[in-house]
Structures
1.
Amino acid sequence: MKLAGKVALVTGSTTGIGEAIARLFAEEQATVMVHGLDRDGGERVAREITKAGGKAQFLEGKLEDPEACVDLVEGTVRAFGRIDILVNNAAIMTRSNLDSTDAETFDRTIAINLRAPLLLVRAAAPHFRAVGGGAVLNIGSINGYCGENNQLAYAISKGGLITLSRNLADSHGQEGIRVNHFNLGWVLTPNEYALKMREGLPEDWPHKIAKTFAPSGRILSPKEIAHYALAFVVEDGGPVSGAVVDLEQYPIVGRNPTKETD
């Protein structure tokens, strides 16, 4: 098994992409700390991992609180004796534009999506050093390149996360701390499905996505993202660090979709 003996903290893992990562890591014999705000959901995920023969516990924590970031890492080490892998997956999807992005909206989005990953890595770094290194995977978004007109604060936070990932990889590679980054495209998570329903799409919208946005006829699944995550945290993947990988089914940068009319 690829993660035997390793301890992984996966933030935002009570559902969606984080849950899929936590479950796959556990299948590969990592001991997993599940995190989120939904206690019932988090305890369910940890319980189901355990019933399937894995090892997992759940910790609740609001990442906009700097103390909670430290407590989450220290709680993982107290529970399992060490930490080898940190997946910064938790994030808030803020809908805002120039007119609606006030200071409170901006600060909360940055606190959760950008400051928390920084503080979590900062808290984990001494423990990584104690075991000879560690792996960090930051889950970003293709919106970090620009974003839509109603994603101003969110896009800024994800753009900053790209720079954070590269800076930390460059600064701490000699300590054996690897930091890599995914810019995710459109993924069919429960939260994404619910969001699009609230925004007026029909119940069957995942089956009616234009080929411009989903050339394969569908969008990505959390389980597919989890398999990429596994590849970037295993030791046999080599010392790769500082990679920023776009996970979408078409090229992001420079794309110029065909202009078609009916």
Note: Strands lie at 7-10, 31-36, 55-60, 85-88, 134-141, 177-184, 244-247.
2.
Amino acid sequence: MAEPENRREPEAEVHQEFWGRWSPRAFSPEPIPEKILAALFEAARWAPSCYNDQPWLFLYARSPQDRALFLSCLVEFNRAWAGKAPVLAFVLARKTFEHNGEPNRWAPFDAGAAWMSLALQARKAGLYTHAMAGFDEDRAYEVLKVPREEYDIMAALAIGAYGDPETLPPGVRKTEAPNGRKPLGEVAREGAFTK
């Protein structure tokens, strides 16, 4: 399937893997080979974390039964397109440090680093990922049997090869292209905070 043209232009010299990564909604249902899927989670395993605690956990679904269960946790808008992805996942962040049981306020930051590692590895494998905040948190805790006192469910993920954008709902189809970014000066500033 031909992918949309990526017209992004970085403001500084940076490897294409960063600005080339984007979050499509058109996925092919083609299964992901076991070896490639394992490599995605292996990349996430090597992400940095506070005290090397590695507080993330990825729950993923490939079978029709598990995918239906995971899909049922998504809001209707996301269910409309994410159901085509061959792998659905949720990324969790453990609330406390393993070594002392104290609260780990850096766990979501670290889980985000693991997610980005997975997303970049997916691109190297010719796959795409799309993280979603649009899910029913209470339902996800219930049907995925995640202990709420131990983990925060951070995001849902769709993973797969690029698919046919014609399968998307019309309103979604017209936005199916890499989007832009804020100017560099709005996301990084030298010195102390200023308005």
Note: The mean pLDDT is 96.
3.
Amino acid sequence: EALRFDEKAIKIGVRGVLNVLRTLKMLPTLSKKSSKRQSIVTKKSSWIRAAESGFIRTLKELGDTVEQGDVIAYIYEVFDDTQYRVLAPFDGIIIGKTQIPLAHEGDALFHIAAFADLEHAEKRMEHYQEFDDMILSENL
């Protein structure tokens, strides 16, 4: 989210820096063990760009899974009632999304990571959501 502070991202980033400093023995290690989490890896992602200019009404959020052909947003013409559908080009998970309600033709709207096994990726994302909730509840 451009021009915004994301508290969750800041806490995760600070925790990552602290973990690196502990690994390099620049800070003392913590006594509690953290659970090992497996990363989700994809080698394909793509930005979905606006085919038209107008107001955007998004239907999907960060972390949502999408299937090819799903409507993920609408773009409305400024001066009439025309609306355009923004479709997911492949199965994946939304990893980036514009927060600006206006789009010009060619603007990046959604960043989607492709996954062959969408169900497995969705289960892993649920695990990360639980981890994010835990981080937000903890003090660093």
Note: The chain has a mean pLDDT of 82.
